[in-house]
Amino acid sequence: MGLSNLKDRVVSFANREQFNYSALPEHGNQGGSETQGPSWLDRHKSILRVTGVALLLAVIGTVAVNLTATRKGHSCDYVQTGFQCEKAISHSWGQYSPFYSVPSDIPNDIPAGCEVTFAQVLSRHGARDPTQGKSLAYAALVDRIHSNVTDYGKHYDFIKNYKYTLGADQLTVFGQQQLVNSGIHFYRRYEKLARNVSPFVRTAGQQRVVDSAVNWTQGFHHARLADKLAKFPDAYPYDLVILPEEEGFNNTLSPMTCTAFKEGPDTGGDAQAIWVDTFVPPIAERVNKNLAGANLSYSDIIHLMDICPFETVANTDGHLSPFCHLFGEDEWNGFDYYQTLGKWYGYTNGSPLGPTQGVGFVNELIARLTGQPVRALR
Ligand SMILES: *[C@@H]1O[C@H](CO)[C@@H](O)[C@H](O)[C@H]1NC(C)=O
Ligand SMILES: *[C@@H]1O[C@H](CO)[C@@H](O)[C@H](O)[C@H]1NC(C)=O
Ligand SMILES: *[C@@H]1O[C@H](CO)[C@@H](O)[C@H](O)[C@H]1NC(C)=O
Ligand SMILES: *[C@@H]1O[C@H](CO)[C@@H](O)[C@H](O)[C@H]1NC(C)=O
Questions:
Q1: Are the beta carbons of 128 and 290 closer than 8 angstroms?
Q2: Which one of 83, 89, 269, 335 has the fewest CB atoms closer than 10 angstroms to its CB?
Q3: 3-state secondary structure of 245
Q4: Who's near 109: CB < 8 A, 6+ residues apart?
Q5: pLDDT tens digits along 101-132
Q6: What domain of life does the UniProt record list for this protein's source (predicted)?
């Protein structure tokens, strides 16, 4: 049982005929020049961690462990269930919502007669400051409000003294802690496997993604140290395989290495534009009444809403920013949908090239599991 079996299953899966893609050869190497070392699986054993695709895929577990608050103080971010602060609002921020576990009626017990021999978690990065372009836009928006508004409405007067101080691109401390928690969560969920091996970690090269991977390993290692049944020593600090996101690297964790995708139509933005005209007008009307003189456009309103999640995760404990309460639950649902349209039509099934981009990732995974060079499958 176990690893060689898993390898056989992966090879036979890859050899099934029902895909458009041709399978990896099971033996030898047709190219002639590549040598076949011991399989990746043999070298790294059974835990694979991958970080760095365009979407954050939340891995959800219901292993019975205590709901442990991550820090002292008043944080409501938990290892087990993720972010639970004012969830009627905070779970409706699209990709800006901090990780939270989605309630489900489907049990995640292992089916009778089965055994977990391999586990993988795929995530992007923890909570971060806005990207640089966005951060400049938010700062300019706040400046414009300050210089143009003549009269602040009842719940809006905090903005008068608000200073925009967010940085750009990198993880916040809250975001680092999320990945530490993710590592702990993963360890606990797959404890029986995890206590006997060191994880394999692969990451895209952007700083915040590498930093996320590092914090994840800290959480994993920490959970392992706390496990009396774990085998020691492990190989901590674990080596990271860092795949650059620059031109010239076929990084299967970065959508922008595909030129046709990068230069293609903005399918996400097009879908969002339609929805903006539907959900933003009543919000804009109210906000402009309360910020007399600001004359905020629809995109300004989206930016004003963006500031809520970014200010929230810039706070170590994740207390909700006052900007969050300028908008109602329905309005946050509209915002959630807006962000989802951008990702769905921009990067996943709603984009003509979205699903195809996953092929590279699967090919690489199969290659690693079988110890074969990656083949371009068509
Ligand atoms: C708002 O202020 C900026 C300067 O910060 C100015 O250029 C602009 O015309 C003003 N807009 C309105 C509507 O008053
Ligand atoms: C994340 O990792 C960095 C680098 O080791 C470390 O300085 C930081 O304290 C870690 N963050 C947390 C929340 O542990
Ligand atoms: C990337 O993939 C293309 C197409 O398969 C190939 O021609 C090229 O050599 C690859 N580049 C690298 C750095 O592996
Ligand atoms: C408000 O902004 C719009 C463009 O978004 C502009 O056409 C209009 O003239 C502005 N109104 C005032 C009073 O500045």
A1: no
A2: 269
A3: coil
A4: none
A5: 998 999 888 899 999 999 999 998 999 999 99
A6: Eukaryota
Strand locations in 132-265 (E)? 151-152, 200-204, 240-243
* Ligand 1, pocket residues at CB < 6 Å: 143-144, 147-148, 295
Ligand minimally distant from the alpha carbon of residue 300: 4
CA distances from 194 to 52, 128, 211, 247 (A): 21, 28, 22, 35
Q: What is the pLDDT of residue 7?
A: 60
Contacts of 63 (CB under 8 A, 6+ apart): 80, 188, 189, 191
Note the ligand closest to the C-alpha atom of 291.
1
Q: In 3D, which of 246, 266, 272 has the Cα closest to residue 351? A: 266
Pairing of strands 200-204, 47-51: parallel
What pLDDT does residue 378 have? 53
Amino acid 374: pLDDT: 84
Could you tell me if residue 29 is left (phi over 0), alpha (psi between -120 and 50 degrees) or otherwise beta?
A: beta
pLDDT of residue 49: 37
So what CATH class is 3-370?
Answer: alpha beta
The reply to whether ligand 2 has any atom less than 6 angstroms from the CB of 176 is yes
- Residue 154 confidence (pLDDT): 94
Residue with tokens 């054993």: 45
Largest Cα–Cα separation, the chain: 75
The closest residue, in CA terms, to atom 14 on ligand 1 is 148
Distance (Å) from CA 148 to ligand 1 centroid: 6
pLDDT beneath 50: ranges in the chain: 1-3, 17-19, 21-72
From the number of C-beta atoms within 10 Å of its C-beta (0-12, 13-18, 19+), residue 371 rates as: middle
Rounded Cα distance, 258 and 362, in Å = 16
Nearest-angstrom CA–CA distance, 158 and 214? 37
Query: What pLDDT, on the 0 to 100 scale, is given for residue 36?
Result: 42
